[in-house]
Amino acid sequence: MQSFMIERLRVSGVGKVDGVINFTDGLNIIQGRSNTGKAWILKCIYYLFSSDTRPYSPLTGYTDIEGDS
């Protein structure tokens, strides 16, 4: 059986610092204080696989989402 794993999620935009999340093999737990982007990470992953609606407003300055596997 073939397996699939997201190794890295990156969001970027002109003049913006890239936001990068690295995942490891096995269970990855996303934790943090309220309003720090946990749900946004999940929305970006959802966008990569099934949605045609970007998970953020263009007003943020971010324009690209990439996932490496």
Present the secondary structure layout.
Blueprint: E1 8-12, E2 19-22, H1 38-49, E3 64-68
Antiparallel strand pairs: 1-2, 1-3
Report what the structure shows.
With 69 residues, the chain is an alpha+beta fold. It has one domain. 17% of the residues lie in helices and 20% in strands. The protein has one helix and three strands. Strands 2-1-3 form a three-stranded antiparallel β-sheet, with helices on one face. A hairpin with a 6-residue loop joins strand 1 and strand 2. The radius of gyration is 13 Å and the shape is globular. The chain starts with 7 loop residues before the first strand and ends with a strand. The mean pLDDT is 89.
User: How large, in whole angstroms, is the Cα Rg?
Assistant: 13 Å
Distance between the termini: 17 Å
Mean pLDDT: 89
Strand order of the largest sheet: 2-1-3
Number of helices: 1
Describe the global form: globular
Q: What series of H and E elements makes up the topology?
A: EEHE
What is the helix fraction of residues, given as a range?
A: 10-25%
Counting DSSP E segments of at least 2 residues, the number of strands comes to 3
Q: Summarize the biggest pleated sheet.
A: 3 strands, antiparallel
Strand-pairing-aware structural class: alpha+beta
Beta fraction of the residues? 15-25%
Total domain modules: 1
What are the low-pLDDT stretches, counting only 5+ consecutive residues below 50?
Answer: none
